[in-house]
Amino acid sequence: MHTEKETVTLEAGHIGYLIYCPNPFVFDQEADEVTIYTYYYVREDAIRLYGFSTRKERMLFEQLLQVSGIGPKGALAILASGAPHQVMQAIEEENEKFLMKFPGVGKKTARQMILDLKGSLKELLGDEFIRNPETEGQPAIVGEDGPLEEALEALRALGYGENEIKKVKPHIEKLDMNADEYVKKALQLMLS
């Protein structure tokens, strides 16, 4: 298995499958056997495989695709936050402000997510997926962090350790960027 920043290439039966993932680094590189729950996406101009570490993550991805204005790239970005339970909690609590933090999600799309998905996610994915014991009792948004802090949190959610983050922080903190740009720059530095 070969991992890049957005994909894993998995070999099965001497065939390599390129799989787009919210966080490809969650899969064990050294394991002899890896389970990836896939979603086969077909459009007239694209055929892609999307992969997830759990069935419930894949089901949330499928639900997000049903929302007008959210495509596979947007749904992956939402799941890449590493906190699908917080996304679901924000939908249930009608927290548009939290949902608008994701790339490509404006007020209209956030409202559409709430209208389309509120109530249905709990039935489909279960209460325990929405209520994560680690964040139980915490609001979906803890405060107004700056873009740098948001980016550092996103890197932690992607599975990067504090040592890796400390190495790139001095290089990016002197730049004036939004959270997405900070994450991209940090990933470039880490992967180079």
From TrEMBL:
Cite the SUPFAM superfamilies for this sequence: DNA helicase RuvA subunit, C-terminal domain, Nucleic acid-binding proteins, RuvA domain 2-like
Key words of the record: ATP-binding, Cytoplasm, DNA damage, DNA recombination, DNA repair, DNA-binding, Helicase, Hydrolase, Nucleotide-binding
Name the domain of life this protein comes from.
Bacteria
Work out whether the entry's keyword set contains NADP. Answer: no
What's one Pfam family the UniProt record gives for this protein? RuvA_C
| Domain Helix-hairpin-helix DNA-binding motif class per the UniProt entry, residue ranges | 62-81, 97-116
Q: Which GO terms describe its molecular function?
A: ATP binding; four-way junction DNA binding; four-way junction helicase activity
Keyword ATP-binding in annotation? yes
The Swiss-Prot or TrEMBL record describes its family as follows: Belongs to the RuvA family.
Q: Which HAMAP family match?
A: DNA_HJ_migration_RuvA
**Known partners and oligomeric status:** Homotetramer. Forms an RuvA(8)-RuvB(12)-Holliday junction (HJ) complex. HJ DNA is sandwiched between 2 RuvA tetramers; dsDNA enters through RuvA and exits via RuvB. An RuvB hexamer assembles on each DNA strand where it exits the tetramer. Each RuvB hexamer is contacted by two RuvA subunits (via domain III) on 2 adjacent RuvB subunits; this complex drives branch migration. In the full resolvosome a probable DNA-RuvA(4)-RuvB(12)-RuvC(2) complex forms which resolves the HJ.
Name recorded for this polypeptide: Holliday junction branch migration complex subunit RuvA
Annotated organism of origin: Alteribacillus iranensis
